[in-house]
Design a protein that fits this description.
9 helices
Length: about 230
Amino acid sequence: MADNISRSLAEVLNRIAHAAADSGRQAKDATLVAVSKTHAADRVEAALKAGQLVFGENRVQEAETKFPPLKAVWPDLKLHLIGPLQTNKVKEAVALFDVIQTLDRPKLAHALAREMERSGRRPDCFIQVNTGEEPQKAGVTPEELEDFVALARDELKLPIVGLMCIPPVNENPSLHFAFLNTLAQRLGLEQLSMGMSADYEQAVRLGATVVRVGSAIFGRREQAART
Ligand SMILES: *Cc1c(COP(=O)(O)O)cnc(C)c1O
């Protein structure tokens, strides 16, 4: 198992490096977030031993049981929250995560600002954009985005570093990746979190600075994980 994870990781990193080169960038310009949701701590440990230090989880509670012991052993481990954040979990999220990728509404922005002020911890934040304007999906719509950036970054002074998107399943993701890039440039935001197992190379070619890859590293998930 550890062998498989190490081999898959090397493969994904290699593909990222090639995709980055295709777009005139370097491998280090795109950070791989290894999405370990639903996988047990021993699989995360196998990835750590293979040199991977950045991980993504979509549920605060699951991350809270899995990661503190690993962080104690691997102090350079960085953890990203890539799933929806409820305001009643903001305290735990700010304490545990190094990056919060799913800032998606004013109420959450206010709650994060209060908790960062209280705790003194300031995890980097991405604003999740619902580029496909899907009613059931989280994220700020493209029309709301400018006002939301004004609130979160300029008024509340949150450490907003970039934009994140999850394209609709039945559409060409490239259109959404290119669109997210345009939005970020317009707003002066440098980072783009986009691309999953099926399309991370396309995302890197279109400027992703962060890709979120789960199954291509850890294999299929047993439970149906919410996205
Ligand atoms: C689960 C998840 C991923 C990883 O998905 P894979 O297809 O397994 O690579 C990426 N981003 C988000 C937001 C997720 O929930």
